[in-house]
Amino acid sequence: MKCRNGCRIALAAATALTGLAACTSSGSPDEPEGGRTSSASHAALRLAERSTDRAESVRVRSTTVMGTQLSLKADGALDWDQGLTGTLTITYTGGTTAETMRTLGITSMEARYLPDAYYAHMGDAFARKAGGRHWIKYAYDHLADLGGGATFGDQMRTTTPNQSIRLLLDSQDVREVGEEQVDGRATTHYSGTVVVGEVADARLREQLQQAGVTTETVDIWVDDRDLLVKKVDRGRTATGELTQTAHYGDYGVRVSTRRPPADDTQDFRNLLTQQGGSAS
Predict the structure, then answer these.
(1) CB-based contacts of 262: which residues, under 8 Å, 6+ apart?
(2) pTM here?
(3) What are the DSSP calls for 41-64, one per residue?
(4) What pLDDT, in 10s, does the model give residues 220-255?
(5) Measured between alpha carbons, how far is residue 264 from residues 11, 132, 142, 213, 267 in Å?
(6) Model confidence over 87-110: pLDDT tens digits?
(7) DSSP 8-state secondary structure symbol assigned to residue 90
(8) What is d(CA 58, CA 194) in angstroms, rounded to the nearest whole number?
């Protein structure tokens, strides 16, 4: 195993956690079943988007399935008051990428988000092949040089719960499904299909288009405090069905994220340079 391959795997895993599911659909979106579409639903969603954004921090647990390529779980807390910060524990549960990571001795990984970079703890087996350093740093400003493009850095900076609500606000078929209990909380369930070309936010629309997204089905559950409790994004990619489910709670939680020690950190761009390669 070369370090370069391990770095590619970590980058792919980070992409899966952006919260902007890069989904495509080969057919027409399904027609809504039941529920209702109304201006009241849009008004409620706009209130939920603002309330969730203003909360500024949250605990999150999520599952992501990317066809046969990767499935994972993530658990931790995020803060977006002054740029995205937070820590997640990522557990790889299946798929070809997870199988490859197991050959590196990695079944789970700590991910730290700071306003300028994402850090991945790759474990002892990786460190033995990477100069003894356990952490990889992905500077957002350098991601265009790593084959992820500027879009990837933007996605990492905007991984906040209210993004799914903003997407749903651009759905032409958004509807209130009904009242449901989620994680012991009374919620209202909303659903809709988002056509990427109709997304009002130009930056978000460009991110999704560059990722190959055409449509995305979004379901969200909002509590009586107008806070997002759960979201499910569904679609299709070249590697198969993509589904991401996230549960949110403990809004306003204090989040403290430390930058990993410099002497235990490798910059991903430097690793590629040392090996005479590139991420493209």
Answers:
(1) none
(2) 0.82
(3) HHHHHHHHHHHHHHH-EEEEEEEE
(4) 999 999 999 999 988 766 666 788 899 999 999 999
(5) 18, 7, 20, 37, 10
(6) 999 898 998 888 877 877 788 889
(7) E
(8) 25
